[in-house]
Specification:
Number of helices: 24
Strand content: 5-15%
Oligomer: single chain
Shape: globular
Structural class: alpha+beta
């Protein structure tokens, strides 16, 4: 047989008639083996396709002025509070976004990784919590050669750099398991936790890559790498359960376990001691991210149920919703990670260090509080060790039912790929915060302005909203036509605490509802909109209350989301 599993031509004996004849003979066994064991080129092709997809987003985001700092998600408030060097360094600021997201803090720490500047106490939302995760900040400082603009851009690129090494590691792990291994490999390269960490320049993915490398190495070397993983994200120290031995002789095993614990934990302990000398503990040690088991998940399921009942999910257009619906993806995230957890506990691989590390993170994941679940996509970062262990063990045990387990355990992946693929499209500013629909083929070009008592506009890919910051807020609608038109308003509204909300138009009507801690659909009756400006009042009897979020000192009352103005013909013309 020729090298590479190709069929060969076998010369047959001289038949009657005196002529030679060559007949191809295909070895079916060899062909089946080739199908069962895909070559390295399959993994290279899948990995290259995934890399090109990721790199194209970085290329689209890049600008000569700001580099790729859009991935840092810097808010205007924390830029104003920041270190002098952070404020003066060119970087992309999200338009009208006051608070930004977590990656901005670790990027700022990269400008002063020894925590010497006292301004850090004001610049960071929680100095003790953020400063514990210092590894990626140090890497950015080293990679940027001490130059602020380079440092910020190196930090923004770290997730992609780690991804290249991660793809090589995944090839090593999944290649022995045939086509199920290819499927698990592909799912891991673009799973949601990686996408979330990459698009916001977070420490989760670099820490997870180091955690995985530690499990692959094992022994004292693995413990040393685990120490680095814990300096990227301290919950990674739980991975020590994957390195420990659980077999006799017990005295020798205990000594090795203690040694591994010291190697892995001592650098983190020393660094936390140093951080304590710089910053006091002002908030919960866990950042209010942990609570009783399943509490956060049950709260999110309740929120999903309300959205499903209120018609926020268009089930008849399920294919589009599967890729774009934030509410449906919240349910898929719960289904996927619970499926992964159940599979790991029912398909035990005690001798597999990655399985042990994944299982130990299951209780941690189940205890995540409702605060991270509010932005449920961030939850997928915490589940990365579980997701890897699931896909690896599933590929190792590809038997009957494999496809069902695989689809359920990875059903949240398409949404994340779509979300990242569309990142950076458009001008980068906020989307229009209201939509106008009309029953008439031609209608006046109405305009709306949030004029009094509102926060700055906030948005995601699919939604836009403002918070009321007082008991009273106003919306001004402008009718440029010479004739009145009849309109109604619809939007989603929620509150931080139970309260009432009244929406009124002077002389045209008043509508009210009771607000809870989740979005509800609100619709006014129809009212006449004369030429010129009309003011719509939003009133609540209960004063605004603190937001309850770390680093957010605003007083908030109610949130108006996805405003829609619906036009109909005025009564006189009917």
């Amino acid at each position: 047989m020729l090298q590479g599993g190709l069929p060969r031509l076998r010369q047959l004996s001289l038949p009657t008639g005196g002529r030679f004849r060559f007949t191809p003979h295909l070895h079916l066994t060899t062909f089946r083996q080739a199908l069962a064991r895909p070559g390295i080129w399959v993994f290279v092709f899948v990995g290259a396709a995934a890399f090109l997809q990721l790199f194209s987003v970085f290329a689209r985001v890049y600008s000569p002025e700001y580099g790729i700092t859009k991935f840092l998600v810097v808010g205007h408030e924390f830029d104003r509070r920041g270190l002098a060097v952070f404020r003066s360094t060119p970087k992309y600021l999200i338009p009208d976004d006051r608070w930004g997201f977590d990656g901005q803090f670790y990027a700022e720490l990269a400008l002063d990784p020894l925590l010497r500047d006292p301004q850090l106490k004001i610049a960071l939302d929680d100095p003790f919590y953020r400063s514990r995760r210092i590894l990626t900040s140090w890497l950015a400082w080293l990679g940027g050669l001490g130059r602020p603009f380079w440092i910020l851009n190196v930090y923004a690129a770290l997730n992609l750099v780690f991804w290249v090494g991660f793809a090589v590691m995944m090839t090593r792990l999944f290649r022995p398991y045939g086509w199920p291994g290819v499927a698990g490999f592909a799912a891991m390269l673009m799973t949601c936790g990686i996408i979330e960490s990459m698009r916001s320049s977070l420490t989760d993915f670099p820490g997870f890559v180091l955690l995985t490398l530690a499990m692959m190495l094992g022994g004292a070397g693995g413990a040393g790498v685990l120490a680095l993983a814990s300096l990227a994200r301290e919950p990674n120290i739980l991975g020590i359960a994957g390195l420990w031995g659980y077999r006799p002789p017990w005295l020798r095993t205990t000594r090795r376990n203690v040694l591994f614990a010291v190697i892995a934990g001592l650098p983190l302990a020393l660094w936390i001691g140093y951080v304590l000398s710089r910053f006091p503990i002002e908030h919960s040690v866990t950042g209010d991210n942990l609570t009783w088991p399943l509490y956060g998940i049950m709260g999110k399921l309740g929120e999903f149920s309300l959205h499903a009942v209120n018609g926020d999910i268009v089930w008849r257009d399920w294919y589009s919703e599967f890729f774009t619906s934030e509410h449906l993806h919240a349910l898929l995230t719960i289904i996927a990670v619970l499926t992964q957890s159940v599979y790991l506990f029912t398909h035990r691989e005690w001798n597999n260090r990655i399985w042990r590390a994944g299982v130990i993170f299951v209780p941690f994941f189940l205890c995540i509080s409702s605060i991270p679940w509010e932005r449920h996509f961030t939850i997928t970062r915490h589940a990365l060790p579980i997701t890897l262990a699931f896909n690896l063990v599933l590929a190792m045990r590809a038997r009957r039912g494999w496809l069902i387990w695989f689809l359920l355990g990875n059903c949240f992946v398409p949404y994340g790929i779509y979300l990242f693929a569309t990142y950076g499209h458009g001008a980068g500013g906020a989307p229009i915060e209201y939509r106008i629909t009309s029953e008439q083929p031609s209608s006046p070009a109405l305009q709306a302005r949030f004029t009094q008592g509102w926060s700055a506009e906030e948005w995601t890919l699919a939604h836009t909203w403002r918070w009321g910051v007082a008991r009273h807020a106003t919306l001004t609608i402008v009718n440029p036509a010479a004739q009145p038109v009849e309109v109604s308003l619809s939007f989603k509204v929620r509150s931080i605490c139970p309260r009432n909300l009244e929406v009124g138009v002077h002389g045209a009507g008043r509508w009210s509802t009771q607000l809870l801690l989740t979005d509800i659909n609100f619709r006014t009756g129809r009212f006449l909109l004369p030429p010129g400006e009309t003011v719509v009042d939003f009133d609540s009897a209960i004063p605004a209350v603190p937001s309850g979020k770390r680093g957010d000192d605003r007083l908030l009352s109610f949130r108006v989301k996805d405003l829609q103005i619906e036009l109909s013909a005025p009564p006189a013309s009917r």
